[in-house]
Design a protein that fits this description.
This is ABC transporter-associated protein EcsC. It comes from Clostridium manihotivorum. This protein is 77% helix and 0% strand. With 238 residues, the protein is mostly helical.
Length: 238
């Protein structure tokens, strides 16, 4: 058990070195390019994307759609992480099937991928929190989940800010408002959109949409899984 925790700490240290860095010139250029892309996307795209994030936000606030009754007590740290890995593979398979199916259907069907993929991601994060032994009925734990999500899918500048809050979660969470509705949903929405827009647009192209949908969704879940595991390691391996 001690050997595994030492291994997990080493992985955590390596992950931190990859995550925290100054925004590069490429990061800034990408951000500027994304704004131009947003200006030429059809209004229907913006409407569906906005509504999807709004609805998922409400679900996270209430927790009703995602809270699991399953409890994971009396498990070793190693067993918890093995279970998280198994769940990640299950959710990846679901996301790949969903991405391939919507990607094969063209632009209008491809739009349906956004709310579906969001639900898969958040269901996974709620499960991960429970496996690590955290009570997702606590709204601050749901806010932590939102921070994990942002850390996985944001610009480098925003990642640096969110990482600091997660790394110091015990003290930072004491400063959080009692009302989860005061969470900065606007920044949350825009950061997520800017991160995945270009990749998901390729999913809507004829011929390659199905392949891109499966591949992109798989990679997005991989990134979310790695981020979630290391965020909870920061809290449990101090």
């Amino acid at each position: 058990m001690k050997h595994y925790k030492d291994h997990a700490r080493a992985e955590l240290k390596h992950w931190k070195s990859k995550v925290i860095k100054k925004p590069s010139v490429i990061d800034k250029l990408t951000k500027g390019s994304q704004k131009k892309i947003n200006s030429i996307l059809p209004e229907k795209y913006h409407t569906i994307m906005t509504e999807a994030i709004k609805n998922i936000s409400k679900a996270v606030i209430s927790g009703s759609e995602f809270i699991t009754k399953k409890t994971y007590s009396d498990m070793s740290f190693y067993d918890r992480e093995e279970l998280v890995r198994k769940k990640l593979e299950t959710y990846k398979t679901t996301a790949m099937i969903e991405g391939a199916g919507t990607g094969a259907g063209g632009f209008l069907v491809g739009l349906a991928d956004f709310p579906l993929l969001l639900s898969i991601k958040f269901k996974f994060l709620f499960d991960v929190a429970s496996v690590y032994g955290f009570d997702v009925k606590d709204y601050k734990e749901r806010l932590f989940i939102l921070h994990v999500f942002q850390l996985a899918f944001s610009s480098q500048e925003h990642i640096n800010k969110i990482f600091s809050e997660i790394e110091n979660w015990d003290s930072y969470s004491e400063t959080l408002p009692e009302d989860i509705n005061k969470f900065d949903w606007q920044t949350f929405q825009q950061e997520y959109r800017d991160y995945i827009d270009l990749a998901k647009l390729l999913q809507m192209l004829p011929a390659i949409g199905a392949f891109v949908g499966a591949y992109v969704n798989s990679k997005l879940l991989d990134k979310l899984g790695e981020t979630a595991m290391n965020c909870y390691r920061m809290r449990l391996l101090k």
